[in-house]
Amino acid sequence: MKKIGLTTTVPIEVLLTAGYTPIDLNNVFVGSTDYSKYIDLAEKDGFPKSLCAWIKGIYGACISNNIKEIVGVHDGDCSNTKALTEVLSMKGIKVYPFSYPSSHSLKDVKRELNTFMDLFHVTLEEVEKTKDKLNKLRKLGIEIDRLTFEDNKATALENHIWQISFSDLNGNIDNFSNDLTTVIETIKKREPHYSKLRLGYIGVPPMTTDIYDFVTNFDAKIVYNEVQREFAFPRALKAKNIYEQYLDYTYPYDVYFRIDEINKQIKNREIDGIIHYTQAFCYRTIQDIVIKEKLNAPVINIEGDRLNQLDARTKLRLEAFLDMLLDAKEGIF
Fold this sequence. Notes:
The protein is built from 15 helices and 8 strands. By secondary structure, it is an alpha/beta fold. The strands form 2 sheets. A 4-stranded parallel β-sheet has the order 2-1-3-4. Strands 6-5-7-8 form a 4-stranded parallel β-sheet, with helices on both faces.
């Protein structure tokens, strides 16, 4: 199967039906033991320092890993993606565009998906068969999430890693299914571990994955990873078709649609506080104003740039936030 790079989660059902192996360039970038080399390559090729590290990382991962074709999401993700794909096109990489319509209407979602299917010469019937196959796999994503917030057996980092991997299924559906099944069986055998504080993590998946272990020092656990969970499409089984599935995907649409789902999870998971992660130079940082006003839980906003570990200042801010939540929960004011 031919490899195709992704700048974010897209309808992989279409790509798999067309015989492609999707490769999420975000995961290649952040998962690298030497992730900074991708940023350095982008800056060497002219990308400014005052630009989101993710965009530079995606560029570097694409060039370094000999990706010849990519899907670039021009609307519904990073506002810099269009310029990124123009540079990649100049480098001889074939770019397939895709957009999540800002209107967030079923009619427009259907139009975009039909255009995407036409690009790859596949039919709706074929794509629906692939969707049915992936729905069996998505049940495993729902299960590892349940093992995190309900059974308290899966760790927050496991929750993050496995749900985020649904964006490209680690490049192989069958291997991914077998690996996740084995992991779930192992997790189920554990004794549950409870924490005083139950936290939600919202925003783009972090470069600083040490955040999951850091909060455990304060008797806290992240029991909800917002965007990672969306990548796993937990409500796909309820969708009548591929159009409804991508209409219900919260990440690419307006912040109020996201907030409705986040508030549901705050209630369902009995979350005490929210960590809102944003990337430096990203427009989503502005949305923190709305999020703090509309969410039904206290919120702290932390910002990452090009480091893959929490810096000292962010650790201090998180510690103060968690202390405040603990005091509130224990009735100390």
